[in-house]
Amino acid sequence: MLGQQFYHESIRKVIVAFGTTFNNIQLVRKNNDGVIKQSMKVPLAYGPQQKWLTRLNEDADLSKTVAVTLPRIGFEIQNLSYDPVRKLNRVQRFKKVKGADSNRLDTQYMPVPYNLSIQLYVMAKQSDDALQIVEQILPYFQPDYTLTINDMTDMGIKRDVPIILNDISYEDNYQGDFETRRALIYTLDFTAKFYLYGPVTSSTVIKTVQVDQFTDIKDNAPRREQRYTVTPKPANADADDDFGFNETTSFYEDAKVFDPVTGTDKVQE
Fold first, then answer.
1. I want to staple 221 with a disulfide (CB 3.0 to 4.6 A). Which of 107, 190, 217, 230 is the partner?
2. Torsion-angle region of residue 9: left (phi > 0), alpha (psi -120 to 50) or beta?
3. Tens-place pLDDT, residues 210-233
4. Where are the domains of the chain?
5. CA count, 13 A, side-chain hemisphere, 127
6. pTM higher than 0.85 for the full model?
7. Nearest of 55, 77, 108 to residue 190 by alpha carbon
């Protein structure tokens, strides 16, 4: 079972969709008269917040021209866990005709539910900038926001992935002298509920079906078997043809039964 190579980019698609959600947040600054004097798009990047705090701390004396641009938004994966609440029937399968080849069928078992914990942080130097960014995010999460993604491209499956806002925390690094850079950080914890898919298998069109039936009779009685065989007419018909079926019924009777006394088979009289 293990060792079959497949990669559907399920986790990557969730991360890309999550980042795209926050990729167009605008920030404006006004003067005392309410006139907009500056407008900017808040930069977004994947990475831990410690990375940006380290860059700020390395320029404690403010000697470098640019240490890091504030405000900014960052996010990173925190945890990946199985979700038993959304467990599906494991033997049920998806089916889809393989591309333009109508003689082959792609099948795939039901996906496995997982929760992806993602942490998003808003870093700013001024309190009003941070509040303006956070206020553009929170109204959309009540407490979840649903994204529609191409969950399984090979099988043509689209799925709604809910992004749930779990918690919000606030941090203000105000301690230090007047030359120390200030960093306001809002941390938002999210959970994305998505599915992971297994490998896709291909099979040809089924052209013959055989069913064996027998009656539940006594051990010393002959076994009677009835067999149904169904084949398309003609047998070499394509899947798109409107063909009929040939049905064949055969009867078999086992005239020999087992003799428990002698330990051998004997002919049934």
1. 217
2. left
3. 776 665 555 555 555 666 677 776
4. 10-79+113-191, 206-267
5. 5
6. no
7. 77
